[in-house]
Design goal:
alpha+beta; five-stranded mixed beta sheet; 6 helices; about 45% helix
Amino acid sequence: MGRRIVLDMMDGFQGHIVTCDNFFTSYALGTELLKKKIRMIGTIRKNKPELPSALTNTRGRAIYSSLFAFTETHAIVSYLPKKSKNVLLMSTVHSDPALSERDDQKPQMILSYNSTKGGVDNLDKIVATYTCRRKTACWPMAVFHNMVDVSAYNAFVIWRELEEFLLWYQST
């Protein structure tokens, strides 16, 4: 389902780079997007069948270590920012195992992802911090709480943009 959503949203586009959350990222999506001349970068879930087990296993790996896997069109990186925390990323943009010069030696793929991720990750982060959710076994209430959280975030974004516009307008 996630693949279909991304393909429908990118219908008619060419030459762009799509940044995906782990719900959407897959090898098949990357292949389909490449056929449409669109590249992709995104986090990927550990349980995807296309991932080699060497990338998902964290035993015996040092902190700040990176493992890369490459195909003709795709690149996957497994990075350990903390002990037993594994960050997995798939890209059709990158084709080399470049690391940053920083102390944590983050791969360039992760730095690219962090600079282009936007709405969904920010929404998830804000909603996780400031939420009206309550524990419930009733799924309509869970959907309602999520709608309130997303609506509150959208109202905040609109308010912030209006404030920025008014400050710009007053200064001209």
